[in-house]
Amino acid sequence: MDEKEVKELNEEVKKIDKMTSKNKETFLEKNVKNVVLREILEWIEVLVVAFILAMVIKTFVIETTEVSGESMMTTLHHKEKLLVNRFIYKFTTPDRGDIIVFLPDNENRNYIKRIIGLPGETIDIKEGKVFVNGVELVEDYLTQETFNIIRNPKTFPYTLAEDEYFAMGDNRGNSLDSRSEDVGVLTVDKMRGKAICRIYPFDKMCVFGDIEYSNLNEGTSSEDITMEEAN
């Protein structure tokens, strides 16, 4: 307490000393009620502010989502819970390897896939492999080869427009993704956000780091390989 508060307290004590027993009881009861009421109002104010902040964060910054299905195995599994950064693509562009949450056209549920192709690139799928601008994409997180999809398949090679992204699930044999015209390629406005970490199960909590595809910068295109073999 500062000097002013001590002085005010001493004044209140003097007032109480001058009161009769009944008046003291009434005075104390009234003050106790006022203190309790003030405490309740302060807590209500805190809870309202916290609720508003939580809604703002959920709507514009961070939200949780649950993995549904097996399309991202073995990276992600059914019922796992992720934190999604909804703010990041307001300031940065999506990158290859990002795990994203998006809402396809004519769908009422979110999809979770990995960005494979960037705007302006040519994507090809052949011999169980993915090629970007003629260079094989080395994907260490895969456990199987990549082939085109059966359901309304896209024709390859496919060149992305300047605002289009190509996404696929890590479980290439069981994923409905950009290989199908039913899902198609993506634009940023369809992306709900980037998955930044897994928060459940607790024993599998982790942060999803950036993936380096160094061979795209250092590798040789399939056309160059064919020319070298011919020579």
What does this structure look like?
This protein has 231 residues and is an alpha+beta fold. The protein folds into 2 domains: 3-59; 64-221, Umud Fragment, subunit A (Ribbon), CATH 2.10.109. 30% of the residues lie in helices and 21% in strands. It has 4 helices and 11 strands. It has helices at 3-18, 21-60, 215-218, 222-230, and strands at residues 62-66, 81-85, 99-102, 111-117, 122-126, 129-132, 135-136, 158-159, 166-168, 191-200, 206-207. The strands form 2 sheets. Strands 1, 2, 3, 4, 9, 10 and 11 form a 7-stranded antiparallel beta sheet that branches. Strands 7-6-5-8 form a 4-stranded antiparallel beta sheet, with no helix packed on it. Strand 3 (99-102) and strand 4 form a beta hairpin. The protein is elongated and about 95 Å long. The model is unreliable at 219-231 (pLDDT under 50).
